Amino acid sequence: MSLIVQKFGGTSVGTTEKIKAVAEKVAGFRDQGHDMVVVVSAMSGETNRLISLASDVQEKPDPREMDVLVSTGEQVTIALLCMALKAKGYDARSYTGGQVKILTDSAHMKARIQNIDVDNMRADLDAGRVVVVAGFQGVDDAGNITTLGRGGSDTTGVALAAALKADECQIYTDVDGVYTTDPRVVDSARRLDKITFEEMLEMASQGSKVLQIRSVEFAGKYKVPLRVLSSFVDGPGTLITLDEENETMEQPVVSGIAFNRDEAKISILGVPDAPGVASKVLSPIGDANIEIDVIVQNVAADNTNAITFTVHKNDLEKAKSVLAGVAEDLGAREVVGDDKIAKISIVGVGMRSHAGVASKMFKTLANENINIQMITTSEIKITVIIEEKYLELAVRALHSAFELDK
Ligand code: ADP
Ligand code: ASP
Ligand code: MG
Fold this sequence. Notes:
By secondary structure, the chain is α/β, with parallel strands linked by helices. It has helices at residues 16-31, 46-57, 63-70, 72-87, 97-100, 119-126, 153-163, 197-205, 213-221, 243-246, 277-287, 316-330, 357-367, 391-401, and strands at 3-8, 35-40, 92-95, 102-104, 113-116, 130-134, 137-139, 145-147, 168-173, 194-196, 226-230, 238-241, 256-260, 263-272, 295-299, 304-312, 334-338, 341-347, 374-378, 381-387. Helix 1 (16-31) packs across helix 4 (72-87). The longest helix is centred in the N-terminal third of the chain and has 16 residues, at 16-31. The two termini are 38 Å apart. 43% of the residues are buried. Bound molecules: adenosine-5'-diphosphate, aspartic acid (ASP) and magnesium ion.
C-alpha cells in the first residue's frame, strides 16, 4: 500500500461527467488499498473567465482581490469531486489551500509555498478518507488568500507529495505524457518514456506548459517521483527521473524543443560605448519589476552600442516608457519594440558531451530562410529568438533535423 498524490488539470475536470470519471479513477486506486490525496484545478476555461470578469470591472485588478476571485474556481471542483466520491460510497473530504494550511508568502498571483501543515490530511487518511485539495492556492501569514501563478495546481500537487513523503506524484492531463515538443503543434512529436529533472526544468522554463516550472523545481529539490499521464487513456506516461539513474544510458543529444510566444523584444540604439552603460540601461527595468530574459549587446562601427533584450509581452509598453527616460539621460538615439517574436529552445543533457549542436541548429534555420535575431545558450539548451510567423516552421524543421520523430 502506498500514498499517492494525483493532480487533475482543468480539462480533466471540465464537466460533471469528467469529474465523475476522475472519481472512478481515484476509487480504483483506493480499491487497491492506496492512500489517496487528490489535487484538482478549476474546470477548464474557468480561471480565464474569472480573470476577464475582473478586467471588466477594474483596469488593473487589485492583486489581493484577484486571488480571492480566481481561487473560487478550484473550490467548486474540490466539492464536486468529493460529492462524486461519496455518491460511489467512498469517504472523502475537501480542503481549500487555507484549510490545509498551505502557507505561502504574500506575493499575490505568484505566491511561493513556504510550509504545508499535514496533520489534518494525515488524520483523514488514517480514517480511510480520500483527501481532496484545491490546487493553485494558499494562504499567507495574515490569512489572505494567495495563488501560485497560472498552472499552479501542478505545484500544489508536487508540494503536497513532498510534504506527505508520498510514494509517487501523478499529474493527469489532456496529453499522455511529456512529448519531444508540444504535440498540438508538431504532429510527429513523440512521447518520452523518461526525461531528467534538469531537462524538464529547461523545457518548462522555456515555455512547455505541461508542467509549471515551480512544480519541477519542487520535485527535483525534494526528490519526488513524478509522472505525467493522461486522464483519458491508459498508458505509462512520462517519468521525470533523477539524472543519476540515467547516467549509464546513452543520452540523445537533444531531448526536446520548447517554445514561447509570450515575449517581446526591445532595443535601445546608439548608446555610447562606455563602462556602466549596460547597467544604466537594465537596472531601471529591474527596478520597475520587469523581468528580463534574453539579452544581446552589439557594438556598431561608430562606437555606439545597441542593447536588445526580451520581456513578457505584457511588460513591453512599460519597459519602453522606462527606456525612453534612460535614452534621454544617455543621449541614445532610439528605443524600438517588437512583439512579433518567438523564442525556441532545444534542450538536452546530451549537449554537454556533443559539439556541433548549435551549428546544426543554426544551419537548419538558415535552410528554411529563417533569420535568427538573438541567441543565448546554457550547458543543456540553445535558445534563439526569431520572427513569430516562422515559429511552427522552425519547430518542425528542428524536430526533424535532430531526429526527434524517430
Ligand atoms: P492541465 O490543464 O492538465 O494542467 P495544461 O494545458 O496546463 O494542462 O498542459 C497540458 C498541455 O501542455 C498539452 O495539452 C500540450 O498542448 C502542452 N504542451 C506543451 N509542450 C508540451 C510537451 N513537450 N509535451 C506535452 N504537452 C505539452
Ligand atoms: N486554474 C489555474 C490556472 O488555470 C491553475 C491550474 O490549472 O493549474 O492557471
Ligand atoms: Mg497546467
